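Homework help board

Subject: predicted structure for assignment chain

Our instructor gave us this sequence and asked us to write out the predicted structure in token form, then describe one feature. I got the tokens but I'm not sure how to describe them. Can anyone check?
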Amino acid sequence: MKTKNILTALMLLFVCAGTCTIISSCSKDDTEENGPSGNNNGSNENNNGQQNQEIVVTVDANGNADGGHYFTAPDSKTFFVDYIKYTIKEGHLVVSGYDETGLKSINGKATIVSKIIYKGVPYAVLEIEEAFKNCVSLTSVTISNSVTSIGSSAFYYCTSLTSITIPNCVTSIGGWAFDGTAWYNNQPDGLVYAGKVAYKYKGTMPNGTQITIEDGTLGIAGEAFRDCRGLTSITIPNSVTSIGESAFKGCSSLTSITIPNSVTSIGGSTFSHCSSLNSITIPESVTSIGGSAFKGCSSLTSIKVETDNLTYDSRDNCNAIIETATNTLIAGCMNTIIPESVTSIGSSAFSGCSGLTSITIPNSVTSIGESAFFNCSGLTSVTIPNSVTSIGYYAFQGCI
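My token output:
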């Protein structure tokens, strides 16, 4: 999906159970189409078009903030604005905590600002870490339009949190980010969306379930479909850019999946223990694949990386994923033939590949990573050349 400038941002307002709301807003540079927000069917029935919110706080040389904002700076890398803690990280700000006493004094209503200009230096707020975990005094949160990532457990068990405003520029949400909140607890069963991210399948998934992610969705959150054993197929639109950690872990009935050419990031353990998955193709757009992404995919017979991918390859039709720059094989299957150019076998590369019966490791390989062949229960023959100088822990544990 191509992006297009628009003059007016759209804000999607969904009301659940009459008490809990989630508002999704987009910046002027956001995509033209509007994705789902805060329900399980992608309905746009309650949309209210509103201007997107941007909050910039300017702090002068004396430490005084404009606009009546409460501001303190305990050190040169830590700021508090209206009782929310921001920490400088790689030139930008992450939301890293809060002042509980101060937050209670404003009735638990938190606002995440877009930017802090501190003594002339601008710092954009891009991430929310595990900042509010177990914050029972938090009742509402408004996230301004600079934030792109919400970390794992960011609002975990904020039991009083009923209202959440998420900008449509958020493309990545970690696992359990909103679990235990009043907002999540009041969502109906099914696929719950947070802004333009498919957050989590709530409830017990029936056998034979087929899911189509709504057009305009930008990300699939960590743990989104974890252990959904009833999931047999899923359609991901060409708008999704990231698939979070363990998003499909344990989806034992999932036989195939098409990753669109919009996806740039696949998190760690994303397809781990998808025991019925038989083939996977990595598109040219993918630049990051987390560890153990295909661990325990015991039925996997075909792995392919599209030829125009600049980060990974499947050279010599090897049926594996190789990190091109390091010549490290990071994921293999029962039909993998390790090319002569590979220099290392990554951690958990073949872990749980019970269909693998034999493997020849070429003379180019110097290291075998931790758990590389862990629980390859059918492996009866392996040739390790003298070139290998390092073998990680549990590399062959569980092999016959």
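Reply (TA_rk): Your tokens look well-formed. For the description, you could write something like this. Helices lie at 100-105, 182-185. That's the kind of observation they're looking for.
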